[in-house]
Specification:
Structural class: alpha+beta
Largest sheet: 6 strands, antiparallel
Shape: globular
Mean pLDDT: 81
Order of helices and strands: HHEEEEEEEEEEHHHHHHHHH
Strand order of the largest sheet: 3-2-4-9-6-7
C-alpha cells in the first residue's frame, strides 16, 4: 500500500520524466537517421606523434592526443601520418585548439594558418580545418602550434578527417541531439530571462525565476562554446572566442543568487546574495573591459575564476542540502536534489578542465578517462529536466 501511495503521489513527476526521456530518445533516433554525419564519411586520426619543444631546448615526446606543455614559449609539433589507402580528393583535417596560432605544413610547404589575423585575440576554441594535398597520402601532415597560454585549457581530442564540404558539421559529430536541445534551451531561457526581468519589480517569484533562467542560460552557453558547437550557430570567430567565458563568468554569480532564494538561513542567504552581487558586478565589468579597447581577455585570471566557481557551486550545494526549512512538497524536493546533482557535475567539469593541463597518456587510465568525459554535457541535460520539472509541476 505504501508503494502504491508513493506511486500515486509522484505520478505527475514520473509521467513528466518519462515523457521528457522519450522525447530525447525520439529526437536522437530521428537525428541518427536523417541528421547525423554518417560514420563512413569521416575518419578519426588516432595515430599521431607529438613533440613539445621547450624554451631551454629540451623536448618531450608523446604518442597520443593526450599531451601537455608548460609555457607559452613552448612549440608543439603534431605529426599526423596519412595512409596511402585513404587517398581521396578534397579532404580536410579538423580539430579544435585553444588560444594558439596553428600552422600546417606538407613537407616544408605551408598549406594553412589559423589564429594570426583575428580582430580580437583568440582566447577560445580555435577551429582548425587543414586541406589535405592529394600527394600527402602515404606521408604525413606536420602541424605546428604556438600556444598563447602557459597551460592547456582543455584536453586535445583526436583530429577528424572528412570532406571539406562537410567540415562545418565536424563541430557536432556525435552531438547532433545535444546541439538541437541546447540551442533550444539557450533561446528559451533568454526569452524567459527577459520576461522575468520585466515582472521582477512587482513579484518576488519573478526574481527567483530570473536568476534560475540566467543560471541555465549561463551553463548552456558555456557548454556550447566549450564543446565547439557554437561554430554551428555562427562562424564569427570573435563570438566563438568569448561565448563560453561569458557563460562561465555569468554562472559565477547566478548560482549563488538563485540559491539565496532557496534557503531560510539568514546568514547563508546574506552570504550568497553579497557574494553573488559582487560577482555579478565583476561579470558586467569584464564585459565592459572586453568590449572597450583595453586589451582585456577573459583568460588573464582563468584559474582564479575556475577556483571561485568551484567555491560558489559548493556553497550552492550546501545551501540546497540544508535549506533551513521543511521542503514544501515533493516538487521542491525533487528540484533541489536535481540542482545539487547539476552543481556536482559543474564542479567535476571544472576539475576536469584543470586536470586537462597535466594529464597525458603516461598517467593512470582512470585519470585519462576522467579528462575525456565532458561532464558539462550531462550537466546541461540535467538542467533541462530541472526546467521542465519547475514549470510543469
Amino acid at each position: 500500500m505504501k508503494q502504491l501511495y508513493l506511486l500515486c503521489k509522484n505520478r505527475t513527476f514520473i509521467l513528466l520524466f518519462f515523457s521528457v526521456l522519450s522525447g530525447i530518445l525520439f529526437l536522437r533516433l530521428f537525428l541518427s537517421i536523417w541528421g547525423r554525419v554518417p560514420a563512413t564519411n569521416y575518419r578519426v586520426l588516432t595515430e599521431m606523434s607529438v613533440e613539445v619543444l621547450h624554451e631551454d631546448g629540451s623536448i618531450d615526446h608523446f604518442d597520443s592526443h593526450l599531451f601537455n606543455f608548460s609555457s607559452n614559449k613552448d612549440k608543439i609539433i603534431l605529426h599526423l601520418p596519412l595512409k596511402e589507402s585513404w587517398k581521396k580528393e578534397h579532404q580536410a583535417i579538423n580539430f579544435f585548439f585553444y588560444n594558439s596560432v596553428v600552422k600546417a605544413y606538407y613537407k616544408d610547404k605551408l598549406i594553412a594558418s589559423f589564429g594570426e589575423n583575428l580582430k580580437r585575440h583568440m582566447i577560445g576554441n580555435l577551429k582548425v580545418c587543414i586541406p589535405v594535398p592529394i600527394e600527402a597520402y602515404g606521408d604525413e601532415i606536420r602541424v605546428e602550434i604556438f600556444p598563447k597560454m602557459p597551460y592547456m585549457e582543455n584536453n586535445f581530442d583526436s583530429p577528424v578527417m572528412m570532406a571539406e564540404s562537410d567540415s562545418l558539421f565536424f563541430t557536432i559529430i556525435g552531438q547532433e541531439t545535444s546541439y538541437v536541445i541546447f540551442v533550444m534551451t539557450v533561446v528559451a531561457t533568454f526569452l524567459a530571462m527577459m520576461m522575468f526581468a520585466f515582472f521582477s519589480s512587482i513579484h518576488i517569484y519573478a526574481r527567483e525565476g530570473f536568476w534560475l533562467m540566467s543560471m541555465i542560460f549561463a551553463i548552456t552557453l558555456w557548454h556550447l562554446g566549450n564543446s565547439g558547437m557554437m561554430y554551428m550557430l555562427t562562424n564569427y570567430e570573435d563570438m566563438n572566442a568569448v561565448a563560453e567565458y561569458i557563460g562561465m563568468y555569468l554562472l559565477l554569480s547566478t548560482a549563488p543568487l538563485y540559491a539565496s532564494y532557496e534557503t531560510e538561513r539568514p546568514l547563508v542567504k546574506k552570504y550568497l546574495r553579497i557574494a553573488g552581487s559582487i560577482l555579478f558586478l565583476l561579470f558586467l565589468l569584464s564585459i565592459a573591459l572586453y568590449l572597450l579597447p583595453t586589451g582585456y581577455t577573459y583568460v588573464w585570471h582563468l584559474r582564479w575564476a575556475q577556483g571561485v566557481q568551484i567555491v560558489m557551486l559548493l556553497s550552492t550545494i550546501v545551501s540546497l542540502i540544508f535549506p533551513g526549512r521543511v521542503v514544501k512538497n515533493s516538487s521542491d524536493h525533487i528540484l533541489g536534489v536535481g540542482l545539487v546533482y547539476v552543481a556536482i557535475l559543474g564542479i567535476m567539469e571544472q576539475v576536469r578542465l584543470i586536470l586537462s593541463a597535466s594529464v597525458t597518456h603516461k598517467w593512470p587510465l582512470l585519470l585519462q578517462w576522467f579528462v575525456k568525459v565532458h561532464y558539462s554535457k550531462v550537466f546541461n541535460y540535467s538542467n533541462d529536466i530541472c526546467i521542465y520539472h519547475r514549470f510543469l509541476l
